[in-house]
Amino acid sequence: MKKSDSIQIHDLSFVPLISEEAIQAQVNIIGQQLTERYQGKNPLFISILSGAFVFASDLIRAFDSHCEIGFVKLSSYAGTRSSGDVQTVMGLSKDLRDRHLIVVEDIVDTGRTLHFFLEHLRSQNPASICTVTCLRKPEAAQFPVPVDFVCFDIEDKFVVGYGLDYDDLGRNLAGIWQVLE
Ligand code: 5GP
């Protein structure tokens, strides 16, 4: 990899992992599959903030039918490592009973965030729950969470871009970049 292909964020260097074009192609495929599955059901997309906001905004525009979107802010990360506990920072104001929910995650790492959040959603008696993530790190899995749609499975290395940050920087990168070790 040429040196010019890397970028510096704080103390870490990152190299390109997944291009903007490759992401958009996957988003369009999943958007189409969701459109077929939820035709006439007015699903509620739930975007987990902050990281999933870019993916969610592309995904709902690839969804070609009526839908709604809500946001929830959960946190378990500080720096490049999960801090252990998951807290709901900002909840949903909508009534979820009998709704078809599509949970949108940026990345499933240990699975702790999604595990916790799905438990919370199930207790609200929705009609159905489906999970979509842009990225997943299969080697890091610690919690058995059902993920229905995955754009990319990646190695267990820290990544930034497409909504994901490293201590607040990097969210605006169009593609996904992986830490250079
Ligand atoms: P989990 O609860 O599955 O361990 O972690 C999920 C959350 O941790 C994601 O929503 C994301 O915010 C954060 N996370 C996990 N892996 C990475 C990573 O490689 N880069 C960044 N920027 N955040 C990550």
Characterization of this structure:
The protein is an alpha/beta fold and 181 residues long. It has a single domain (20-77, 85-156), classed as Rossmann fold, CATH 3.40.50. It is built from three helices and ten strands, in the order E-E-H-E-H-E-E-E-H-E-E-E-E. It has helices at 20-37, 53-61, 112-122, and strands at 7-9, 12-18, 44-49, 68-78, 81-90, 100-108, 128-136, 149-153, 159-160, 176-179. The strands form two sheets. Strands 5-4-3-6-7-8 form a six-stranded mixed beta sheet, with helices on both faces. The protein has a four-stranded antiparallel beta sheet with strand order 1-2-10-9. Strand 4 and strand 5 form a beta hairpin. The longest helix is centred in the first third of the chain and has 18 residues, at 20-37. The protein starts with 6 loop residues before the first strand and ends with a strand. The structure holds guanosine-5'-monophosphate.
Reported for the largest beta sheet, the result is: 6 strands, mixed
Using the alpha-carbon principal axes, give the shape: globular
Broad structural category: alpha/beta
List the bound ligands.
guanosine-5'-monophosphate
SSE ordering: EEHEHEEEHEEEE
How much is the average pLDDT? 91
**Do you know the CATH architecture?**
3-Layer(aba) Sandwich
CATH classification class: Alpha Beta
- Summed up, the helix count is 3
Q: Could you say what the CATH topology is called? A: Rossmann fold
Secondary structure: helix percent: 10-25%
Strand element count:
10
Give the count of structural domains: 1
Quick synopsis:
The chain has 181 residues and is of the alpha/beta class.
